[in-house]
Design goal:
Structural class: mainly beta
Radius of gyration: 13 Å
Mean pLDDT: 87
Distance between the termini: 27 Å
Strand content: 35-45%
Largest sheet: 4 strands, antiparallel
Number of strands: 8
Low-confidence stretches: none
């Protein structure tokens, strides 16, 4: 089990690799396929693109976005566009996890 919290939301990785988040969803940072509102109960993120037998092993984020690493080493992020893309000029938010190309990150 792993826990990561910011001022606005918290995420929890369960023993089976499932990722749940709770708190603010202004920018889609709960990763549940919608934007807006607040969830006081932990909800499973919308991770249909992961595939069978793949879970999360690590989660980090900001007050506006979250990123998580899977058991296969891939990085997924969701929430505020400028945060998840590493580029403040990129404004496209994502309310579901999207895979991030980390090949050029040192």
């Amino acid at each position: 089990i792993s826990v990561f919290s910011t001022f606005r939301q918290s995420c929890f990785i369960l023993a089976d690799g499932e990722l749940l988040c709770t708190g603010s969803n202004d920018f889609g940072q709960l990763g549940i396929g919608s934007t807006g509102g607040t969830s006081l109960i932990p909800v499973a993120i919308n991770d249909a693109s992961l595939g069978a037998n793949v879970g999360y092993i690590s989660v980090q984020g900001t007050e506006r976005s979250m990123c998580a690493v899977t058991s296969t080493g891939q990085t997924y992020c969701w929430g505020r566009g400028g945060d998840i893309n590493g580029n403040p000029a990129q404004t496209a938010d994502s309310n579901v996890p999207i895979i991030i190309d980390t090949t050029n990150i040192n």
